[in-house]
Predict the structure.
Amino acid sequence: MLCLALTVWPVMAAETEEASSLTEQTKILMEKEDYEAAIPLLREAADIGDAGAQNMLGNCYLYGLGIAQDVEEAVKYYQLSADQGDAESQSLLGACYLFGDVLEQDYAEAVKYLQLAADQGNAPACYYLGLCSENGWGVAQDYAKAADDYKQAADQGLDCAQYNLGLLYQLGNGVEQDYEKAFEYYNLSAEQNYPQAQTALGFFYNQGLGTEQDYEKMLKYYNLAAEQGEPMAQFNLGCCYRDGTGVEQDDKEMIRYFELAADQGNANAQFNLGFQYYIGESVDRDYDKAFQLYQLSAEQGFPVAMFAYGDCYYLGNGVEQDLKKAAEWYQKALDAGYEPDDEDQKHLAEVMGEDFLNKEE
């Protein structure tokens, strides 16, 4: 047996050396985007058993780089690589199980592979584990654990982890609320052009949270994010033009930004754009459009939109009057935390009765 082992070792060593050489050649070709020349070398190295080559070949299959896109083949090579302890493949495989867009969603399998990769310091895996802990996916919900995981990834410069960690500090989830720390992490992420962080940073400059209030910087970061299509930044810019915050009041710009955000499904923008059509101040009054926009926002659970949607049914604006529907949406709004004003109270009394209001009190 000893002789056999001594005989086999040089062959295995030679194969390993050959695979490493092929993988290095492939990396150079891939950097040049010469996929046609890279794929045969990559496949040869992967077949010998090089984990790095298997990972890269999986990427090529996943994204269709120099080869027909084939998700099943991509997963096969990720699995081969992950089984050899390749952290990147373990992280990718975990993400596939986590989001369920490539493999059938399986949080337990996701956590298993992500933990293996995170134990090797893989930043994306740490970030994904943070998502699991924050949302209770495959593990008990634990904001403090999420903060620890995000920090491991954030310290390696991962922009999305820096943003998520900033959000935990802003809200005080799993960590002591600290606007200065939130600002610090948002800033790190925003410097990498992460749009959600740019939006958050703009908001902090708007409110003077963790930093001095500065409308010029607020606009800078809102615009950077809006140019990348970030809907919350677009909505916030619409509000700036509506209220004249840091800019001259401009109804056309307000509507333009509200429309951009509403078209991407931002519930706040949908409601506010609907309100403009309902009152007819910045645009021609159009109850039909208002009703449609209120509906889109209400169906996302936006409380004020739920009540406004109920009002449309109560008053017959943009839709045939339907008091039963009005009552249904009024109740949904109240259950979601909407606080009716005096005019709203009158509507509630007429639709749901004075007894209902007395019961609420």
Q: What stands out?
A: The domain at 19-84 is CATH 1.25.40 (Serine Threonine Protein Phosphatase 5, Tetratricopeptide repeat). Confidence is low (pLDDT under 50) at residues 1-14.
